Amino acid sequence: MSALGTNGGGSLAARRHEAQGEVALVLPGGGARGAYEVGALTVLLPALEARGERVSVFCGTSVGAINAAALASVAHLPVHGQVATLLERWSRVQRGTVLRRIIGPRSPLRLARLAGEIAGLPGVRAGGLLEPALESSLDGWIDWDALHDNVEAGHARGVCVLATALADGTSVGFLERHGREPLERGSEEIRYLDTTLDREHVRASAAIPFLFPAVEVSSPEPAAGFYVDGGTRLNAPIKPAIDLGADRIIVIGFEPLVAQTPTQAPVATRAPKLTDVAVNVLDGLITDQVGADMHRLAAVNSFFAGGPVNAPSSSGLAYRESRGRRPYRRIRYAFVAPAQRGELGRLAEQTYRERLGGLRALRDPDAALLGAFLRASGAGRGELLSFLLFDPVFLGRLIDAGRHDGQRWLDRHPDLWCADSAHDFDLDPARATRAAELARLDEWRTLRRR
To answer: Which residues of the chain have pLDDT under 50?
Structure first.
């Protein structure tokens, strides 16, 4: 086991937990956008430490699972050490550490497998359009022994990695927890499995369907099977964070919460390309879930949880009590995201043109081929590039963008935390009434499923 530094020892961590409750970090999936998460955390984690608070629950999906596990492995360090470690690891990221070369000796074999699977040849399996290199690089990112030691010592009281089981489409949360105390009955949409986390769980969480092959997980034994990216069912693991006892959560998103001014939809002048379909799938399955979950959290805070102003719903209280559940808790949050929708996609498109436009594409045929494949009109290619462009310049710009937006949150929320939906969701009275109606309808539907 690795030797760990201390921030006061396990007993101090336990006393902090008892006195203040849990602070959770919720990191969604987004490929290269994981660098944006790191940039935001370079601002938020020091602000949190200045308040005498530290993250103790780490939840992530896809690249968010990688960042969450990496942070849990350095949870024993002072925050400046945690931030420096994440920045150093992202500074070493290149496409070859995430994706194997598209153009190379293995290209004919990959194409033959793809053609064979399309043709239905028995025993031929392509798995995905791209070939990941994570299996060989994850151990350089995550010190697994340190992660296990931190969980045992209480520096990290819970680490949750989300994946989707191919067998039945269930969201599965692979958990490593301090003491493995019995969980309060959690969300029925998620199946939690206690285990000792390893690279297979993180790789499974990051296996984006169609792009990467499904990953076989062998531990724990009841969960043995094939898994894909957790974002296909639950990209923002807010529910696991709350189920693990958090009453404050930090969430990083890639799109703003408040919808932009509606504009007339453009009239389609051509048949959609593969990239047009892909960008809508990624936007719907990955990006939009973060905002939807944050709106649901705000609705619960406003209309169902107890607080200094808002009383909890009496019917909700009675029903949850009859089901052996505790009342809804008011959850404070910090949410960092770009100010404008599509901002990260535009940044990716700009970087691609500067780095690989014209004859500059000759220096990186793989990236040029990827850009040609993703060629689409407007922001479509940019959105996909923002997931797949593991270019050092782009990653650096994402980190800077995350820092900027993290500071923008702190400028608006000097005390870091917020729980007032009217403040961050910009609800006027008419919209607030409508939000209340939708929240009650969502609650009713949830109760009927139980």
So the answer is: 1-19, 103, 108, 111, 114-121, 124, 126-129, 260, 307-311, 376-379, 427-429, 432, 444, 447-450
* Confidence (pLDDT) at 202: 92
* pLDDT value for 99: 57
Inter-residue contact 307 to 419 (CB < 8 Å): yes
Task: Let me know: does 164 contact 171? Beta carbons within 8 Å.
Answer: yes
CB-CB contact of 29 with 62 (8 Å): yes
